[in-house]
Amino acid sequence: MCGIVGYLGSNQAAPVLLSKLRVLEYRGYDSAGVAVIEAGRLNVIKAAGKLSNLETLLQSQRPQATVGIGHTRWATHGTPNDLNAHPHISANGTLAIVHNGIIENYADLRQELTDRGYVFVSDTDTEVVAHLLSREMDKGADLLGAILQVVKQIKGAYALGIVSQNQPDRIYAVNHHYSLTVGMGENESFLASDSTAVRQYTNKIIRLEQSEIAEITAHSVRLFDFAGKESTREPVSLESDPYKIDKSGFKHFLLKEIHEQPLVLRQTLSKYMTGAEDPINFNVEHFKPTGNGANDKMGLYGVRLTENEIKGIERIHIVACGTAYHAALIGKCIIEELCSLPVDVEIASEIRGRKLLVNERTLTVAVSQSGETADTLAAIKEAKKKGSYTLGITNRPDSHLAQITENLIVTECGIEVSVAATKTYVAQLACFYLLGIYLAEQRGAVSKAKLKELKGGLLQMPALIEQILGRAEDYRQESLKLADANDVVFIGRGFNFPTALEGALKLKELSYIHASGYAAGELKHGPIAVLDSTVPVITVLVPGKVYEKTLSNAQESRARQARMVAVAVDGDEKAPKTFEHIFRIPPVDEFFSPIPACVPMQLMSYYVADFLGKDVDQPRNLAKSVTVE
Ligand code: F6R
Predict the structure, then answer these.
(1) Which of 107, 244, 338, 591 has its CA 20 to 30 A from that of 482?
(2) 403-418 in b/e burial notation, b at 16+ Cβ within 10 A?
């Protein structure tokens, strides 16, 4: 949430900052700005709205500078306007600051500073930090000294980038329970909240640790803890990324990412489950999901729990937010089914202020695409404190989550640019199937024959999604018939209740049409009251233990004249008797059905949103990485 960038070197800073901000725009797009040192003077250029507004200003003003910082904002304190856009300038006018996170005690500090005559021009918590730095410098501290004083006064989790016209050969970065990466090139240095924005320029990076300050010049990085003690750390190399950050001919990143799902599944499955000799460097191009590997013992590299530890686990607790929470709910169904272990799933933000009942016989799993979601991080840290084993499932092996969990499974998706999660959701589901099978194997919970069948089934998923994507045009035509709705209800049972929740979330975040997901059996306990002939009810209906009951629940909606829509398998002859619109998917076992069933819904949400002219890749009010609690 919010993106910080910085540059020092011999090139023009503004174009570099802009290109890095473009990579980070998914983190927030309420406003953007840069501060550069031009002819020895601080020059701040910023604009409300999308990055393109800043780009226009930079093109007309063309600041000549080789050092600067930049920011793309997701508003927390103060409406998204020019004044609240970052960077913010200190009272003495010599330094500028960009900030991610929240200064929790900013109101008290602002009052104190106002009482002493400091004038605030914005409503942000950030400006407090700028003025505090200024106050310390007025007392005689240099910038590093001022930072060391100010970190003692501010509370909360935050990351800062600071540039001063008095020390134009350096920028400072401060990381406190956030993420910041310094990139080291040839006589130039970079700063970014996310290593993806550095990767364009260099693969040599230093990740700042918690409560750490970096003094960055074009040639060096000095690191200090909050007590001022200096330490050294060698840069590490970033691994290469097989995914290109472009739309590859698709109209939107979202559509491209939906179409990348077979590749993503192959990447993830081939990493953890294959007969290949070198599973990590497995050649995805040649990966044939036809049951290869079904006989092999899986290697969940990154899961370090021993067989005995796995056997000793009595309960699994999963924490996550948003789409990752929906994946976790399906994870519960998978693990309970295969391992007969009780699994609880909680929305990570709901754990705050409550008793967390985990212990050393619990495995707590945190699922987070970004690995930076503040609520999820807080929950897993709390579980770790209580002695629980921890496991992270993330798309970002360089994230905060990856650093703090002892066990890790990485979804191999490459960067997901579109703010709405699609390919990472499907990859999270794949990870839960892998985890469930792995735990069952280690605990001896299912027979060898069953394990083989499960692995074979999972390996069919990429090809199944390919078939579904081949039907995209049919889905588009069906979807547009729903674009006039004001309210949409999604229902499903068992493994596909979370599919219904995810379908509703995708539709509302992309199209802004109000949508709710319900357990199909719950409809009659209240939500059915909202149904009439204007409301589409979208039922996830796949053959299996709950097929008949789900169909009955759909019929209850039909009796209320609702517009009947289903995701149903080919050959389901009962479906046309109940539903007017059917999104057909190839036949699939109920157990694996959440993977294919979500795809028509993703496409439906995309087509409706695009038809309505919505900003598909950057829906209003959202940010990709939610780093505030
Ligand atoms: C919805 C979406 C969000 C995220 C949620 C958690 O499309 O992307 O609901 O799933 O903000 O984010 P991560 O997975 O990064 O923890």
Answers:
(1) 591
(2) bbbebbbbbbbbbbbb
